[in-house]
Amino acid sequence: MAKSRDTAVIRLWLLCCAVLFAGAEGYQWLSHQGWFVHPDLGWPWVILAGTGLAIAAHYGQLKALWQPTGAGIDGAIAPSTASPSPIGPEAGTQPQPSPA
């Protein structure tokens, strides 16, 4: 049990280091962009802000789309309990034997 916990801690550290490295490199790249240095709210900022607002406003709907409706706690999809509907009015009846 301790080995799997150690592995999880190492993965967390690696993830944190990767996120910090990507953030630092991204900020360094952005600081050399002309539209980032001058706070004139150019088109890239407007598009980025609009995208962020749209995601924040519809987060509940997006989350519902990602999860299947019949998913349980573990993510497994529960089998359907509905029986197939009959095609015609006589689809559910058994054929009657003919009198001989």
What does this structure look like?
It is a single chain. With 100 residues, this protein is mostly helical. Helices cover 57% and strands 0% of the residues. The chain has four helices and no strands. The termini are far apart.
Please count the helical segments: 4
Describe the sheet with the most strands: none
Helical residues, percent: 55-70%
Average pLDDT? 76
Q: Beta-strand percentage?
A: under 5%
The rough form would be described as elongated
* Unreliable parts: none
Structural class: mainly alpha
What string, H for helix and E for strand, traces the elements in order? Answer: HHHH
Number of strands: 0
Span between termini: 74 Å
- Rg calculated over all Cα atoms: 29 Å
Helices and strands, with pairings:
Elements: H1 2-31, H2 34-37, H3 43-57, H4 59-66
Key traits:
100 residues; mainly alpha
Give the gist of this structure.
This protein is mostly helical.
